[in-house]
Amino acid sequence: xxxxxxxxxxxxxxxxxxxxxxxxxxxxxxxxxxxxxxxxxxxxxxxxxxxxxxxxxxxxxxxxxxxxxxxxxxxxxxxxxxxxxxxxxxxxxxxxxxxxxxxxxxxxxxxxxxxxxxxxxxxxxxxxxxxxxxxxxxxxxxxxxxxxxxxxxxxxxxxxxxxxxxxxxxxxxxxxxxxxxxxxxxxxxxxxxxxxxxxxxxxxxxxxxxxxxxxxxxxxxxxxxxxxxxxxxxxxxxxxxxxxxxxxxxxxxxxxxxxxxxxxxxxxxxxxxxxxxxxxxxxxxxxxxxxxxxxxxxxxxxxxxxxxxxxxxxxxxxxxxxxxxxxxxxxxxxxxxxxxxxxxxxxxxxxxxxxxxxxxxxxxxxxxxxxxxxxxxxxxxxxxxxxxxxxxxxxxxxxxxxxxxxxxxxxxxxxxxxxxxxxxxxxxxxxxxxxxxxxxxxxxxxxxxxxxxxxxxxxxxxxxxxxxxxxxxxxxxxxxxxxxxxxxxxxxxxxxxxxxxxxxxxxxxxxxxxxxxxxxxxxxxxxxxxxxxxxxxxxxxxxxxxxxxxxxxxxxxxxxxxxx
Length: 564
Fold this sequence. Notes:
- About 60% of the residues lie in helices and about 5% in strands.
- The chain is mainly alpha-helical and about 575 residues long.
- About 45% of the residues are buried.
């Protein structure tokens, strides 16, 4: 198997590269969680300081970095992009910090409650020494949660408290983690790589750490209910002003929210019509829901057990790499390995984690299978494999990590914008359809079903949080939870429990969910503009290589870099 087409020679390190790399070094000192997530060794025994003092230290680092950037001078286009990307990302982070949004962070998916627990999934546990490191970090959970509570209290003193629905749901998550069959209990008894039980001092250390961590999470749940909940607002909406800031943070671009709200409704109508057409291919005369029932009952699309699921994921991911390498993408040698995993949690999510810098830890696609689920329908999930794997997140993230001859470490490891990353992953799904991989009516319905959800949440998220009038199909007027549920249920075909969680996610994490579909829109517009500019000379493989070599910058910075 070949590796990659020869690239440019390694460029000399510039002053701006040094500023960026110092920032990354400072960041991982302040955030051991980020270090582990990025695969940077030496910090796996520690957790972040989520207290006001810890958050202030992050602000100090950002402001110092921005001051240092202002004293440097770009020497090439790569430097220009680094300056633009860092100024945009760090300045927005400072706006978010000043608004108190870091201090009040509390939602069902992406707040310290989840981040502290989730990082343990990326820690190796094959040896006694690795389990000891795992246990040592777990003993730091009580202090991390205490600091987090300090920040929640500081935010509350400013009148900044997450909505009641989020507080109640997060308290329930704390309870679920600490039940007899929850995450912490499931860690014991632990096993080593060969399946033999962990014994001796390592086992004792882990048992003690688990007890401390479980107690800390149980205590946090009680604090949320007794202290934070009474101060929490009933309204889910964050308001237009805060939403505009959050939208910019997730996109790296400013969009016209009224126009985007209208576009979301038009895009959803287009997707719905296409789903109705595909339903006729599956069963003439069928509605979309009837066609979906046919697909769910078809043995050709069924997998039994997580072993079959994992093998199917791996096979599809490997097939995409083999077929797309050297045709539509330059895929470097180390990037041609992806590992498909069943996650240790049971939330129902599917997600990707990038490789370590030296690729000793490969990029991984994780499937978190809900308890009791043993059958899986591939018609729904083929598009997800392309989204999380190749040409989606794995190609995007791992290729950037690989480009050490071009990019500084911050650009390769830490530059990330949701609209860029998730927009690319949706673009990747659509690209696979354009290349003929979704011709099968079942798989095509899966793609459209996923697109329908993504378009629906553009409408729901912007509409609810900005106070726009609800669509006529749910009665117009002011958005309510019931209208949001009716709207989402009409345009997403998922189990009720999963869909309820999705709705809670949108209500508690404003601006993030729309970044997928809006990001895809901006990626497609950018490809069209480059194609129009280059005419017959346009080459899709070259476009992909240029775009991905820029890294996960904001979408305005990406546009600037590609179009000048």
